[in-house]
Amino acid sequence: MLRIGNVHLQSPALLAPMAGHTDLPFRLLCRSLGGVGLASTDLLNVHSVLRGTPKAMQLAATAPGDDPLCMQLYGNAQDPLPEAGVWAVDHGARVVDINMGCPVDKVAKKHGGSLLLCDVDSTVRLAERIVEAVTPRTGVPVTAKIRLGWDNTRIVGPDLARQLEQVGIAAVTVHGRTTEQFFKGNACLEGIAAVVGAVDAIPVIGNGDIEVAADAQHMMQVTGCDGVMIARGALRRPWIFAQIASLLENGVPMPEPSFQDKLGILLRHLDLILEHLDERAALHRMSSGIARFARTMGHVKGLKEGIRTAQSSAEIRQVLDFWQRRAQRGWAPRPVLEGKDAQAMRRQMV
To answer: How far apart are CA 252 and CA 239, in angstroms?
Structure first.
């Protein structure tokens, strides 16, 4: 059990906010496969949600079964973040998170994100204003997602986390890289451990380079963090949360889904997109995501090309049905023997 403020999570494995990915259908897909303690929305611009723009409303949309839900807001000290925090609670958030770690230029150089790491005092005052607006009135905890610092000469993560705890932030998630690193190199577990050591009582969630369940177990053992947040690894393996929960709770590695099961997961994702979004979204999300997902499936070039070139959701369904029939007849793809995914699988088996 992991507790963030008054919110008790059934698993220490959390789905990260990811721009363009963590929409309602994907959150529901991950939850349906088990093991998700908390799932977050896409990054929400505070002005957009308060104006009620159609795009923001789509990003913030929720539904039965999408619980507990975290809404992540981004902005800076000049933006109405406290008001947006209250808005998030009124629209279903069980946790409100402040983005202090996004390295993308359009966020970090204008609106917040990692920019907030450059002025710790101002950022702590901003966090205090958000907490005061949200938590006393609603009881909903406010959390923060940070990086270690802007670059290796400005490592502020431990000091920032300590001060955020003092003003009422209920948990801190730390990505083990600097802004300058973006997603290059390896996440620094020593840096995450330093943040864990800097706080007194609030949970610290580790983030970065978790591709398989064994990575999550290793991060928690080495850093002492209370939970893990999975981002890009969930796009390849939306079942990773169930695998992490099984490994941490029972010490038993959960096997990978079969090839046929993975085809069923793709079909389930398609159905959820069509249920909650539309045909255009189904084509975009399935065609853009298949390359990453298929890395776990072996050599399936025909499957990837079939989905990428489909002109309708009906064609995608036909492609998946064709490959399922092949699998039912006993066909299985050749495994991928090299590359990042193969390395991750070897770690899973250790």
So the answer is: 15
